[in-house]
Amino acid sequence: MAGPGSTAQDVITCDLCDNPTQQYCNNCQVNLCVDCVSKHVDILKSSTHDIVPFMKRKIQLVFPECTSHPHQRCEGHCQQCDVPVCFKCLTGPHNKHDVTDMADIVAMTKEEIKKDTEEIADILIPKYGQDDEDSDKKIAKCRTKFVKMEEDAEKTRTLWHQVVDDIFNKIQSTLKSKKESCESALKIHQSKMKKALPSLNETLKQKKYILKSNKVLEITKYKSKLVEYREIFTDSDVLLPEWESITVPGVKLSVQLEEHKATLTQTSISNTREDTSSPSMKFLHKARVIADLPTGIKPLYSVACDGKDEAWLCSNDPTIRRVDKHKTIKDVVKTICIECPGDITMSLKGELIYSDFDNKTVNIVRNGKSEILISAPQDWLPLGLCCTRSGDILVNMATKNRDQHKTVRYQGQWVKQEIIDDEYGIPIYKGGSSPLFLAENNNGDICASDCNATVVVVVSKTGKVRFRYNGDSAKRRNSFGPVQIVTDLSSQIIMSDVFNDCLHILDQNGYFLRCIDDCGLVAPGGLSLDTEGRIWVGLESGNVKVIQYLK
User: Fold this and answer.
1) CA pair distance 179, 172, nearest whole angstrom
2) End-to-end CA distance of the chain
3) 192-196: long-range contacts (C-beta < 8 A, 24 or more apart)?
């Protein structure tokens, strides 16, 4: 619309059509042609109109119509109710309220807009332009810095390799020298033994003859040579060197051969800051199967330990069963699920919790009956579960078509946190039909087994992605197939790998430590830790194996 300051050459058109303007509504501040005057009045029947020739127009504020009183304009604003009011409102519901002249509000607002406009034009836009140039310089400096660090890292890598080679060259040289020395000593001893053996046999023959003899002179002339023969055996004691090596990838590498000792340790800053209270536990040389329980419940999707000798088991039916280490079914819970629970977990008080994606609820079992704990928001389904050390519940929520996943932290029924996108707005978890299985680590990290992306994703307690693990470090034959996930007292992350029949163990920073692959774990799925720190693994066959892996 052309304004009142337009020149004679400008064609001012009607606000309702493209015809030249001839009339003007002072009340509505609208340009009109002759044909559109009646149209304008019809559109706003409830308002009063002051139609004048365009050249006699008055530029003024257009006050809003009162919603309570027809044909009245609101020239005031009630500060108490925060609504526009007309003159009649002041004698009615807004009587004695603090009312400000709308014109004053407009003047103050325009002044604020003017200041904002000046700041944007005079300060922000130039500053953004300068910042853009500064960013280019910072990017160039960043690239240069990282190139130098990469070069230094490569030089250090070569130097470290040389140091390691020197260490093992010395060890190999020592081993060779010791080997030659030990073999030489043993061969000398062997030679002495071979030389002495004929003499020893002859002496034995003479002794037997003398024993049978009655001649006094022969007997009294006998001199024993046993001391001489015994001394030969003292030469056989060759002290062999002791070799000791410790290899815990990402933690400690150590070798020792007599006086030669070398140790390489790796310590994470986050480890020293956050995990000082975690107990130091060592792996058994070989994991042991403590119990093998044929439950007949197959396949075992989820396992939730209850104490040290019992666990709840979940399959593809609505029933959840509790079994003990002696294969006895201790309890049965008939859930309200139509198909089966999405996942199960235990509360801090030892109560069973399960997700029901059919009814879109998370339920808790009390006195054998299900009570709704959480109702999922509209268009979302609850799947994977984890009860945290603070008593919060982590829930994997998926859309109905499961094309989007997120982790939601509930405190009671209230949403405390949502984790869905990273700092760049990219979804952290991949969409797909499989749920996210969740675990919380000692430092507050949230570990998710993303079956759809076939990775394990670990985010900090604030929701920032720390790392992803794709199974490559374990060097398994088949592709990685993570299912359930748990964390132990040493902040180690343990996940079942259904495609490789094993369990992967990482430290809290994502460094691969080892696999448990020698316990007959065929298609492992459900996973849980008992109060003794042992792993209960649910298999596709319906068996549960209880495994001890730490000293």
Assistant:
1) 10
2) 83
3) 192/232, 192/235, 193/232, 196/229, 196/232
User: Is 398 within 8 Å of 380 (Cβ atoms)?
Assistant: yes
Q: Is residue 227 part of a domain?
A: yes
Residues in the chain: 551
CATH code, domain with 25: 3.30.160
My answer on whether 488 and 524 are in the same domain is yes
What Rg, from alpha-carbon coordinates, does the chain have?
43
Q: Which of 50, 76, 102 is the last residue of a domain?
A: 76
Asked if residues 377 and 390 have their Cβ atoms less than 8 Å apart, the reply is no
Residues 520 and 544 in one domain: yes
**CA geometry: angle 516, 519, 524, nearest 5 deg:** 75
- Contact between 398 and 383 under an 8 Å Cβ cutoff? The reply is yes
Query: In terms of domains, do 507 and 420 share one?
Result: yes
Angle, helix 125-212 to helix 226-234, in steps of 10 degrees? 170
- Of 58, 7, 8, 71, the residue nearest 30 (C-alpha): 58
Report the distance separating Cα 501 and Cα 505, nearest Å.
14
Q: Identify whether residues 386 and 407 lie together within a single domain.
A: yes
Range in 78-82, 430-434, 479-483, 505-509 with the lowest mean pLDDT: 78-82
In contact, 102 and 93? CB cutoff 8 Å:
no
In a domain, 124, yes or no: no
Phi and psi torsions of 280, nearest 5°: -90, 115
Q: Which residues of 417-435 are buried (b: 16+ CB within 10 A; e: fewer)?
A: eebeeeeeeeebbbebebb
Domain that holds residue 532: 278-550
Q: Is 59 helix (H, G, I), strand (E, B) or coil?
A: coil
Separation CA 337–CA 516 (nearest Å): 34
Return d(Cα 326, Cα 396) in angstroms, integer.
Answer: 33
- Return the SS3 of 121: helix
**Do 5 and 36 share a domain, yes or no?**
yes
- What are the Cα distances from residue 518, in Å, to 138, 282, 289, 474, 542? 52, 18, 10, 14, 19
pLDDT at 102: 87
Out of 136-150, 207-221, 283-297, 353-367, which region has the weakest mean confidence (pLDDT)? 207-221
Q: What is the pLDDT of residues 484-535, one digit of tens each?
A: 999 998 899 999 999 999 999 999 999 999 999 999 999 999 999 998 899 9
Q: Considering its fold, how many domains does the chain have in total?
A: 4
Assess whether 294 and 390 both reside in one domain: yes
Residues 513, 511: Cα–Cα separation, whole Å:
6
Q: How far is CA 192 from CA 108, 178, 237, 276, 336, in A?
A: 115, 21, 14, 60, 86
